[in-house]
Amino acid sequence: MTTVTLPAVPPPPESHTGTRRLPLPGDYTVAPGRSLVELTGWYGPLPTLRRRIALADASLTVPDSSEHPSFRFEFDDPHLTARLVSEQVESLAGGRRLQLTGDLDLDGTAFPLLLRLRVVEHADDRLLVVGTATLPYRLLRRATGFRTGRPATRLRLLVAAEFA
């Protein structure tokens, strides 16, 4: 049996100290054309609906103190007019993933939501994230009156955005 010794390669330098993967404190927005939002309806294992949703506005506020950052997404589309505001942001996996707990506001009715984001790229002045949230369609329809027009058991909301 032979033994192979691999050279130790140091990890690439981080733009922040520690495991922080957020930009420097400040307010960041998403430029037009730098985002993607998709709503997919699932009936069991089968997708029954797939539609792109317009992102009217999105912002990220990173505070100076140790408070949690705040994400806000506004969807403005004939099929979905809603606002998602994060109440708590949790950093997972050394900052490579973010878990947003918040409310999806549909026509004045708040529906709890858990959005799991993956940090694709980060720097001192920008943040690129992609993530999904799964919503039980029946509960969402009963609570808010939202309808897709197609049969579904759950909805998946896909969000990709570059905050700069």
Describe the structure.
With 164 residues, this protein is mainly beta. It has one domain (26-69, 80-163): Lipocalin. Helices cover 5% and strands 59% of the residues. The protein has one helix at residues 137-144; strands spanning 26-43, 46-52, 55-62, 70-76, 81-92, 97-106, 109-122, 127-136, 154-163. Strand 5 (81-92) and strand 6 form a beta hairpin. The chain starts with 25 loop residues before the first strand and ends with a strand. Residues 1-21 are annotated as: Disordered.
Task: Write the topology of this structure.
Layout: E1 26-43, E2 46-52, E3 55-62, E4 70-76, E5 81-92, E6 97-106, E7 109-122, E8 127-136, H1 137-144, E9 154-163
Antiparallel strand pairs: 1-2, 1-3, 1-9, 3-4, 4-5, 5-6, 6-7, 7-8, 8-9
Strand order of the largest sheet: 1-3-4-5-6-7-8-9
Instruction: Please report which band the strand proportion falls in: under 5%, 5-15%, 15-25%, 25-35%, 35-45% or over 45%.
Output: over 45%
* Radius of gyration, whole Å: 19 Å
Distance between the termini: 53 Å
